[in-house]
Amino acid sequence: MNTKAASATAEDLPATGHATAAPRRSPLLWVPTGYFTMALAYVMLTSVTAIMFKNLGMDNGKAAEYASYLILAYTIKPLFAPLVEMYRTKKFFVLVAQVIVGVGFGCVALAMALPGYMAIMVALFILLSFVGATQDIASDGVYVTALDSRAQSLYCGIQSLSWNIGPIVASGGMVYLSGWLHTRVFHHDPKVFGPEWIESWRIIFFIVAGLTLVMAAWHLRTMPDGAKAENAPSSLSEAWFILKDSFITFFQKRDVWLMVGFAFLFRLSIGLLEKIGPFFMVDPVAKGGLGMSNEQLGLVYGTYGLAAVLLGSLLGGFFVARRGLKPTLFLLCCAVNIPNVTFLLMALYQPTSELVVTAGVAVEKFFYGFGSVGFMIYLMQQLAPGKYSTTHYAFGTGLMGLCMMVTGMVSGHLQEALGYVHYFWFVMAATVPSFLVTWFAPFHHKEA
Q1: If you ran DSSP here, which 8-state letter would residue 116 be given?
Q2: Where are the transmembrane segments (predicted)?
Q3: Scanning 77, 250, 285, 374, which has the fewest C-beta atoms within 10 Å of its C-beta?
Q4: Residue 82 pLDDT grade (very low, low, confident, very high; cuts 50, 70, 90)
C-alpha cells in the first residue's frame, strides 16, 4: 500500500515548481524508475522485513514490532527535510541515498552469515530507513522543482503507478522468490520457520541491492539536478525558524484537533491488519492461520492483493471526482473499514481453497484502495491549505504514518494474546473511531 508522505521541505515548495527551463531529458527516463526505487526501499524495509523476521523464527509480536520501528524515519522526515534543501543538489542526495541503500542491503545479506546476525541486521535496517526517507525527500524535490505545473500534472499518474509497482515487486515478487528458493533450490520445508531461511533471504537482499545500485547508475545519467526551491533556508537557524513557524500555524487552523484525529485514526484498523495479515496467511492451521507458503503469500497478498489496491484507487479517484469529497467521505470510510470482515471470516472458517483466500484478500484490498483516496484528498483540500501547504500536508501524512507505526508495534503482541479470531474481532471494533472522526471531520475549504 502507498503510505509515502509528501516530502515537504519547510520552505513549502510552490505548486508551480521552480524550474526555469524545460528539462533536457524526458521525465519518462527518470520519473518511473525514481519512484519505483523509492517504493522498493520503503516496502522492503517496512513490510517485507516483517515476513523475513517471521520466516527466521521470530514470534509475531517481535516481528511486527521490529518492522514497525522502521516506519519512524518516514514519519518524521519533514523534520529533517530542510537539510536536503540547503546543501548540494537534490539529485546528489538521491544518488548518495540510493548507493547507500544498495550497499546497505548488500551488507544485510553479508551480515546474515555472521553469529548474532539479527542485532546487526536490525541496526542496518534502522540506518537504511533514514537514508530511504532522505531518498524520498530528494526524489520528490527533483520532481517538484525540475517540472513545471503542467508537466507535474501530466506525469502524476505515471508517478503514482510507478510507486505502486514497488510493493508488487517487493511484497509480491521478492516474497514469492524467497519461498521458491527455500523449497526448490535449498530443499527446505516451507512450513518450518527458523535459520534455514537465511540462505534464500540472503539472495533476496543481494538482488535488491544490485537492483538499487543499477537504478542509481541510471539516475546518474538521466535525472536532472532539480532547482533550489523558493525561499529555501540558508542556515540551520533559518530552517529551525521556518519549521517552528509551520508548527505554530498548523495548530492555529480552525478545528485542527478534529483534523488531527482524522489524520491519525482514519486508517486505524488498517494499521492493525498490515503486519498481521501476512502472518495469518503463513501461520500453520493449528495456530489459527491458513498454512500458506511464501510463494502463495507473494502471489495472493503481494501481487493480486496489491493489484486490487491499484484498481480500487483508480475507481475511487473517479468516484470522488464525479460526486465530490464531502458527500462521499463517510462512504469511503465504510469502504476502507467494513471489508476487514473478510479476515475475520477467513479466521473463523480457515478456507483451504487458494481461490477463496485470493477473493477474500482482493475484496479487502480493493475497497481499501477505493476508500483511501478520500483520506489523501481530504488532507490536500482541508488540512493542508495555508501558508505552508506542502509542509502541513506532510504533517498529515506523518500522523497517518505514526498511526501505522504504533498499531504495528502492538499488533503482533495483541494477536498472540488474543488468537487470530478474537484479534480480528478486535480489528472490527477498532473501526469505530474511524467512523467517528470521519463523521465529524470539518470542511472549511471549497473543493478544488
Answers
A1: T
A2: 33-53, 92-111, 117-139, 160-181, 201-220, 256-281, 301-321, 328-349, 355-380, 392-414, 420-441
A3: 285
A4: confident
Given the C-alpha cell 470482515, which residue does it identify? 341
Rounded mean pLDDT, 290-306:
92
* Residue whose C-alpha is closest to residue 267's, from 437, 59, 64: 437
- pLDDT category of residue 372 using cuts at 50, 70 and 90: confident
Residues 6+ apart with CB under 8 A from 92: 138, 225
| Whole-angstrom distance, CA of residue 299 vs CA of residue 301 | 6
In the chain, the number of structural domains is 1
**Average pLDDT value over all residues in the chain:** 88
Distance in angstroms (rounded) separating the CA atoms of residues 154 and 278: 35
Write out the H or E segment, with its range, that includes residue 435.
Answer: helix 431-439
Given a contact cutoff of 8 angstroms between Cβ atoms, the answer to whether 162 and 33 are in contact is yes
CATH number at residue 42: 1.20.1250.20
Residue labelled with grid coordinates 488532507: 379
Residue scoring higher pLDDT (302 or 41): 41
Cα–Cα distance measured from residue 122 to residue 118, given in angstroms and rounded to the nearest whole number: 6
Q: Is residue 182 part of a domain?
A: yes
Torsion of CA 171, 175, 176, 180, to 10 degrees: 170
Phi, psi of 333 (to 5 degrees): -65, -40
Q: Which domain holds residue 249?
A: 27-439
| 4 part of a folded domain | no
pLDDT at 115 over 60: yes
Q: Determine the residue type at 115.
A: P
pLDDT tens figures, 116-136: 899 999 999 999 999 999 998
Nearest alpha carbon to residue 270 among 399, 398, 393, 428: 428
Residue 103 lies in a domain: yes
Cα–Cα distances in angstroms (integers) from residue 440 to residues 178, 253, 262, 437, in the given order? 45, 16, 9, 5
Grid cell of 363 as nine digits: 475484496
Cα separation, 210 vs 354, in Å, equals: 33
Is a pLDDT exceeding 50 seen at residue 16? no
Cβ 191 vs Cβ 293: under 8 Å: yes
- Residue 40 near residue 212, CB atoms below 8 Å: yes
